[in-house]
Amino acid sequence: MKLSILIIEDNEQNMYMLSYLLEKSNYNVLKAYNGSDGLKLAHEHKPDIILIDIQLPDMDGYEICNKLAFNGLPKNTVYITVTSYAMGGDKEKSIEAGADGYIEKPIDPDTFVKQMKTIYNLKN
């Protein structure tokens, strides 16, 4: 069975790259360009993995993580923050907000899917 992945990302170029890499690797991809749409899609579709940009226009990724991780999605849903914000403490702050992992941008197209799978496999 194909895993489904929700990408919550406001930058169109990043969205294109992430969705291209994931679709090429045989994942079902859902896309949200802001936190509100991401929350709605997550609850409607219950994806296996949710990739969350930290800097979004309507709410930050930490808030989204917190709302998703502690509000009714399946316990095995994997939350991964993906950000170019990359400041000291961001990884820890992501984990505290409910994320299972953290990947810094710019992503490496050759290793991104493997990094994501590793985080997924640690939880499932």
How are the SSEs ordered, and which strands pair?
Elements: E1 4-8, H1 12-24, E2 28-32, H2 35-45, E3 49-53, H3 61-69, E4 78-83, H4 90-96, E5 101-104, H5 112-123
Parallel strand pairs: 1-2, 1-3, 3-4, 4-5
Helix pairs in contact: 2-3
Q: How would you characterize the overall build of this protein?
A:
This is Response regulator. It comes from Mariniflexile litorale. The chain is of the alpha/beta class and 124 residues long. The chain has a single domain, classed as 3-Layer(aba) Sandwich (Rossmann fold), CATH 3.40.50.2300. It has five helices and five strands, in the order βαβαβαβαβα. β3, α3 and β4 form a beta-alpha-beta unit. α2 packs parallel to α3.
Q: Could you say what the CATH topology is called?
A: Rossmann fold
Can you give the mean pLDDT? 91
**For the terminal residues, how far apart are their CA atoms?**
15 Å
Structural class: alpha/beta
CATH class: Alpha Beta
- Uncertain residue segments: none
Alpha plus pi helix count: 5
Q: Assess the beta-strand content as a share of residues.
A: 15-25%
Helix-strand string: EHEHEHEHEH
- In the CATH hierarchy, the architecture is 3-Layer(aba) Sandwich
Spell out the CATH superfamily: Response regulator
Rg over CA atoms: 13 Å
InterPro entries: Bact_response_regulator, CheY-like_superfamily, Sig_transdc_resp-reg_receiver
Pfam family, one: Response_reg
Keywords: Phosphoprotein
Protein name: Response regulator
